[in-house]
Amino acid sequence: MTHAGPAVRHGGHDGAAGAAGPARPLPGAPAEHPTPRPATGAAAPEGDAVVVTGVGLVTAAGIGAAATWAGVCAGESAAARDPALAGLPVDISCTVPGFSPRRHVGRRSALTQDRFSQLSVAAAREAVADSGLDPATWDGARVGVVVGCGLGGVATWEAQHRRLVDDGPKAVSALLIPMLVPNMVAGHLAMDLRATGPNFVTATACASGATAIGTALQLLRDGSCDVVVAGGGEAGVSPLMVTGFAQMGALSRRVDEPAAASRPFDRDRDGFVIGEGSGMLVLERAADARARGAAVRARIAGYGASADAYHLTAPDPQGTGVLLALRTALARAGVMPDEVDHVNAHGTSTPLNDAAEAAVLRKFLGTGPAVTSTKGVLGHTLGAAGAIEAALTVLAVQHGTVPPTANLRHQDPDIDLDVVTGAPRERPVEVAVSNSFGFGGQNAVLVVTAA
After folding, report:
1. Region 61-66 average pLDDT
2. Which is catalytic among the residues 73, 149, 206, 225?
3. Residue closest to 412 by CA, chosen among 337, 353, 336, 370
4. Residues in CB range of 103: below 8 A, 6 or more apart
């Protein structure tokens, strides 16, 4: 389906702001929308259980999982005016503070990698160290790498295009293509970690990171790998990308109060703040993790994916695709809707996305789960968002804590959910859901359970 010009502006899957029109009834009876099941017709057997043994995070809240977790629990937005965006209609972003490519990934990587790869390498190194595994001694042929990325090396593209225009072809770097193409992030991780197993990048827009983790789950369950380093990385804060999102109406225009700009589920939300970062997990089969005495943080119990098949950017107001992915993930995890304790929502702070997601959650899960969106703190990291939020969901399960939703001052009265605000909520989290949705109507849902 093609829509030109202003028709895109009313979108809201990850994007465009605008008032929601009258919603059609949400899908109801399971018989009308049958839930796909695994080949066994039930949840995956316990022998196929996949667990998280390592977490790595590099975000606008800080470098490292501990810094990011502390930041989202504090509920203070990392958004600020960005000198690199000066002169644009929207000049605010959430960037990683204090990240030094030479210090955090090394001189060679600083010279040969775009920022999206550098952030991902740093996060992956932390995740592997956290897992207790040693790339110097593991069987690299049994180690896979799956990374979600939506944009690739946009900063490199813009810089080299300026060289071409200003100084001619000879000024363009021979490293342009290797730094630009999205698949190189997985290649860099493989080289850095000595991982020679399956290696690729998933691209499902802002669901990419969650899709990568779901794909890793399948690689472990079908025996293709013994270990998978999976997650997402993105560095899309550039003048061209920000202008593109702004032209769609996707970004908040509260440039004079950047810290309050992203406000998921608030009645006055007007768009997201663009961010950058990476989230990485080390995944193994539970039996293998137990055999080596690894500390297990949580279990990735289920994954569901679907397509809205509805619009370029807007979510289907019926929520059919989202509901299908959610039902599939829960069925494959062997979890009933009333067992879900926590939802890390996609929650972009755009009018249509928040409303559509909330309607599906209310219809299928009720008001029992404690809901949060961490985009109020970290901004929207695009292709990395699903991985960062999956990692935060793992930490919520591990710590029995649900972080607050930043800037939620007046909850939209049409959003009838238990959204955590103000301060972290201490509560047992045995079953949690992490939602991720992307342009083109691509949906990915992960179910995380206590180990």
Report:
1. 98
2. 206
3. 353
4. none
Cα 414 to Cα 266, 352, 359: the distances in Å are 10, 12, 9
**Residue 450 identity (one-letter amino acid):** A
Q: What spatial distance separates the first Cα and last Cα of the chain, rounded to whole Å?
A: 43
Tell me the C-alpha distance between 265 and 440, whole Å. 22
Beta bridge partners of 380: 274
pLDDT digits (tens, 9 = 90+) for 160-189: 999 999 999 999 999 999 999 999 999 999
Give the distance, in angstroms, between the CA of residue 420 and the centroid of all CA atoms in the same chain.
19
Quick one: pLDDT at residue 47?
60
Residues near 306 by beta carbon (within 8 Å), at least 6 away in sequence: 321, 322, 324, 325, 328, 443
Instruction: Respond yes or no: is residue 380 known to be catalytic.
Output: yes
Residue pLDDT, tens place only, 345-377: 999 999 999 999 999 999 999 999 999 999 999
Cβ atoms 189, 123 nearer than 8 A: no
From 10, 188, 342, 380, active-site residue: 380
pLDDT by residue (tens digit) across 303-350? 999 998 889 888 888 889 999 999 999 999 999 999 999 999 999 999
Catalytic residue among 13, 188, 342, 346: 346
Verify whether residue 399 is a known catalytic residue: no
The question of whether 188 is a catalytic residue gets the answer no
